[in-house]
Amino acid sequence: MLTADRSESCLGGYAEDGNKRFEALFLGGWMSECVAACRLSMKNVCKAGEIACRYLVGAPSYGETARVTTRKSARWHSALLALALLGWLLLVVACYLRLPLGRALSLWYWLLITALLAWAAWWTFLAVMAYLSRKAYLRATMPLLVGVIVAAALAIPNWENAFIDSLFLLQRNRFDAIGAAYRQGEPLPVPWWMGLLSIDGSVQVQEDGVYLPVYEDWRAETGAGIAYVPSSPDSETVFMTAAGDVGRPVRSFGNGWWWVE
């Protein structure tokens, strides 16, 4: 009897231990799933809260942040290109206005040209490298092409002639008015922009016509300028171009206006 009771107690103990282990495993797995579900839910809630906060304060999401970064990069590259083109444009303008700027700035004019050239070259280099980093090879050629064209334009030996000729084309009516006033013996209508062409904006009435001094060396020994001659000039037609120099008409602008040197 004692042996049977002991056997039943042992079997009962084993069964009870098995139930406890089964319940522990079952409850442990269920609790693990519950904990995992809670963690996932909390993560989703936090993410939703973060999105809501970003929406309320106007901050971009992660995808939007990438797009904003791309847009900022594109704007920066466009800004580099604009700065490079601006530098080349200013350099062309400074070369075109070499006559009035060189007269006003003297040696500082060449410092200005050097600064503009350095500016244009630096921003062109940055723009090219920026586009190459994005593998935008076609856009990278744009600032290089502009630089080559401007460099070729800078090789023009005489920007002063280009400025004078273009000024005659743009203001031919004003020059014709000066010539007509001279023929009629009336006061000469000198426009304000004549200072860009003539030294101090002066218009001199001489024996053979009207003379506009354009160049004169620092010792006033040689000079050159523009003159209006009512009739066809000959070998006797001369103009006082400087205190110690005279010049003759050598190149016609039309309508009685000549280049004198």
Helix fraction, binned, reads 55-70%
User: What is the number of helices?
Assistant: 7
pLDDT average, as an integer? 75
Number of strands: 7
* Low-pLDDT segments: 1-15, 18-28, 49-69
What's the shape?
elongated
- Whole-angstrom Rg: 44 Å
Distance between the termini: 147 Å
Spatial order of the strands in the main sheet?
1-2-3-7-6
Percentage of β-strand residues: 5-15%
Class derived from helix and strand content? alpha+beta
- Main beta-sheet strand count, sense and barrel state: 5 strands, antiparallel
Description:
With 261 residues, this protein is of the alpha+beta class. It is 64% helix and 13% strand. Strands 1-2-3-7-6 form a five-stranded antiparallel sheet. The protein has a two-stranded antiparallel sheet with strand order 4-5. A hairpin with a 6-residue loop joins strand 2 and strand 3.
What is the topological layout?
Blueprint: H1 2-57, H2 62-96, H3 98-105, H4 108-133, H5 137-154, H6 159-170, H7 172-183, E1 204-206, E2 209-216, E3 223-228, E4 239-242, E5 245-247, E6 249-254, E7 257-260
Antiparallel strand pairs: 1-2, 2-3, 3-7, 4-5, 6-7
Quick overview of this protein structure:
This protein is α+β, with helices and mostly antiparallel strands. It has helices spanning 2-57, 62-96, 98-105, 108-133, 137-154, 159-170, 172-183, and strands at 204-206, 209-216, 223-228, 239-242, 245-247, 249-254, 257-260.
Give the tags.
single chain, 261 residues, alpha+beta, five-stranded antiparallel β-sheet, two-stranded antiparallel ribbon, 7 helices, 64% helix, elongated, disordered N terminus
